[in-house]
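Team,

Forwarding the record for the chain on the shared tracking sheet. I've put the sequence and predicted structure together so nobody has to dig through attachments.
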Amino acid sequence: MIGHAYLVVANRNAARMFEIREGATELQEIECLMNPNGRTNSRDMVTDRPGSMSAAGSRIPGSDAMAGKSPADHNLDEFATRVAKSLDERRKKDKTYHINIIAEPQFLGALRKRMNKQTEKLVWRTLDKDLVGASPDALLKYMKNGKSH
């Protein structure tokens, strides 16, 4: 096939992107995105000082400033958006024929939600496992022997 195939190995802390080469026998790391707040607890991401925003009808100013998603979940979503955007930019720049993804389960779900339809169509295999620190040889073994979704 003419074009590029990629492997993304990610968790909420880092995303490593590899180009799959030589008939899926070699991986070349091409990008590494880091999320410095990936493992930070929600309570460590916010101050204990009341917020300055309140929803309509709130009786105590600032009491509901953090309603909805936790800061940790928001951070996970932002990082997944960055990774999805990087994949889409690569798809637009290079002829890409498929993308494989190995990611921790929660991050894999967040990443899939943030991918546009064109990039999502290129996802060939996924594996829900946290292997960001694995060597390229170990990743190749997981790609060949791991279950796909």
